[in-house]
Input
Amino acid sequence: MSNVMRLVVLLSGNGSNLQAIIDACEEQTIQGQIVGVISNRADAYGLERARKAKIPTHTIDHTLFKARESFDQALINMIDSYEADLIVLAGFMRILTEGFVQHYQGRLINIHPSLLPAYKGTNTHERVLAEGATVHGASVHFVTAELDSGAVVAQVKVPVEAYDTASTLAERVLRYEHVLYPTVLQWFCTGRLRLGKDGAYLDGELIDTPLQLVVEP
Output
C-alpha cells in the first residue's frame, strides 16, 4: 500500500468517527490506511475500536506532562514514527500548541459539531438549543493554532427538531459526521484537497465559502 496515504488518528473518547473512517478505508471509499491511533486517555473506547481492526494504538497521558509543549512534542515523536501523510483529529479533546500545528501545516484536519464559524469550542448542541436555532450541523476544517478557526472545507446542515435535547441532537449530528468526514478525507487522500496560503483548495479552486454537502446518514 505504498501509494496509499498514511493516516494517524488522534482521539480522546468513543471513536465513532474513527469507526466510520476504518469502515471507509476497508471499503476503499477512502484511499488511505490508518497506520496508528493515539489517545490522551487510556480508557478511550476508540482505542478498542482500533485494536479490533488490528491498528496499532498508543496512549500518551497528558496529565504526566508539566507543559502542553512537552506533551505535544511527545505526540509529534509518536506521529512522525509512522511517517504520517495526514493527521486526523476525531474527538481529540486537547488544544494543540502553535508549534504542533505548524509542524503539520496543511496535514492536520478536524471535524467540529457546528456550522463554523458559529459555535466554536465545546457544548455546541446545548448552545444551539439555548439560542433557539433551527439549523445545526458539522464542519471539516484544516487546523490552525486558533481554536476551530482554520479554513473550513465542507459542512453538512442538520435540522433542529422541536423535540430535540442536547443528546438527541448530538446523536443526529454524529450520523451526518460519519458521512461528511470520510468524504473530505478521500478528497485529501486522492490529491484533490490541499491547503494554500489563502485557504483550502479543491481541484485547484479556492473554497471561498464552505462546501455544503447533502448526505444521507
The two ends are 29 Å apart (CA to CA). The CA atoms of residues 8 and 36 lie 5 Å apart.
